[in-house]
Specification:
mainly alpha; 10 helices; flat
Length: about 290
C-alpha cells in the first residue's frame, strides 16, 4: 500500500465500508485488472482524490464565475454547486477506471490467444506434464498479456506449491478475457477427465484462428467505410467550404472574418476530426496494440 493510499484509507476507510455495497463488481474488476489493491482501499483513494479536486475547483470556479457575475455570493454558490457535481462525476469515473483496464487487457489477450493456443498445443503434443507445458510456454513465448497470464499460473505452482488444477482455477477467476477463461476452463475439464490436452488445444486454436480471420475481415470492411466517410464528408467538405466562403468573401468584400473562419476549419476543426477518426479506427481494430 502506497503512502497516498494509506492516507486515503486512514481518512475515509469507514466511509468506504458504506459505499462498497454500491460497487459489487469492483473487487472482481480490480483482480482482473491486475491492480493489487482492495476494493475498500480503492474507494477510499477515490474519495480522497475527488475531495482534493473539490477543494481545487471551488476557488478556481469562483474566480471564473466572478468575472461574469457581479454578485460574489452568487459566484461562490454556483462554484460550489458545479464543483460538487464535478466531484461526483470524477468519483464515478474513478470507480469505472478498472473496467477500462480490464477491457484493454482482454483485447490484448484476445489478439494473441489464437497464436498462443497453437503454440501450447504443439508443446502439449510432446506429452509433458501440464505444469511443464505452461513453464516451457512462458520461457519461450512472447505473447504479451497471454504469456503474463500463464506466468502467474507457473508462479502459483512453483512459488506457492499449488497443484496445476488449483492454479488453473485461480487463473480462470482472475483473467479479464472471456475467451481465455473459456479455454482455461476447458483445459481444466479435459485434464481432470483424463482427455488429450493437445487435441483440445489444437481444436481450440483452430476455432480461435477462424474467429480471428473473421474479425480481420469485418474490420477491413469497416475501415473502407471509415475512409470513404473521412474523404467524402471531412476532406471534400472542408475543401468545398473553403472554396464557397472564398467566393462569397470576394462578392461581399468582407474577408477578415472569412479568413478567420477558414483558419479555424483548417487548423483546428480538421485536425480534431482526424484525431477522432484515428481513435475510432483504433477502438474498432481487433488488434490490441
Amino acid at each position: 500500500m502506497g503512502f497516498y493510499t494509506r492516507v486515503a484509507f486512514t481518512l475515509f476507510g469507514r466511509f468506504s465500508d458504506n459505499l462498497i455495497v454500491f460497487f459489487p463488481d469492483l473487487s472482481d474488476n480490480l483482480k482482473k485488472a491486475g491492480m493489487k489493491i482492495s476494493s475498500k482501499e480503492y474507494i477510499s483513494t477515490g474519495i480522497l482524490t475527488s475531495f482534493l479536486f473539490f477543494l481545487i475547483e471551488i476557488p478556481l470556479l469562483s474566480f471564473i464565475f466572478g468575472m461574469f457575475f457581479r454578485s460574489v455570493i452568487l459566484s461562490v454558490i454556483t462554484a460550489i454547486t458545479l464543483s460538487a457535481l464535478l466531484t461526483i462525476i470524477i468519483f464515478y469515473l474513478f470507480t469505472k477506471y478498472p473496467n477500462t483496464v480490464v477491457a484493454d487487457r482482454a483485447k490484448k489477450i484476445d489478439t494473441y490467444l489464437p497464436f498462443a493456443s497453437l503454440f501450447l498445443s504443439t508443446i502439449a503434443g510432446t506429452k509433458l506434464p501440464l505444469d511443464q507445458v505452461f513453464k516451457f510456454f512462458v520461457k519461450n513465448s512472447k505473447y504479451g498479456e497471454v504469456t503474463n497470464q500463464f506466468q502467474m499460473i507457473t508462479n502459483d505452482v512453483e512459488a506457492f506449491g499449488l497443484d496445476v488444477h488449483t492454479a488453473l482455477q485461480r487463473a480462470i477467476d482472475r483473467t479479464p478475457s472471456k475467451k481465455l477463461r473459456e479455454m482455461l476452463y476447458g483445459l481444466l475439464s479435459t485434464s481432470l477427465s483424463g482427455g488429450d490436452v493437445a487435441i483440445y488445444l489444437r481444436e481450440k486454436a483452430a476455432n480461435q484462428m477462424e474467429d480471428y480471420r473473421l474479425s480481420i475481415t469485418q474490420f477491413s470492411k469497416k475501415l473502407v467505410l471509415f475512409i470513404e466517410i473521412y474523404l467524402t464528408a471531412i476532406v471534400l467538405g472542408a475543401i468545398f467550404f473553403v472554396i464557397l466562403t472564398s467566393i462569397f468573401s470576394g462578392i461581399s468584400g468582407v474577408s477578415s472574418n472569412i479568413i478567420l473562419l477558414q483558419s479555424l476549419i483548417i487548423f483546428i476543426f480538421l485536425p480534431l476530426l482526424s484525431l477522432l477518426f484515428i481513435l475510432l479506427v483504433k477502438i474498432s481494430s481487433p488488434i490490441g496494440e
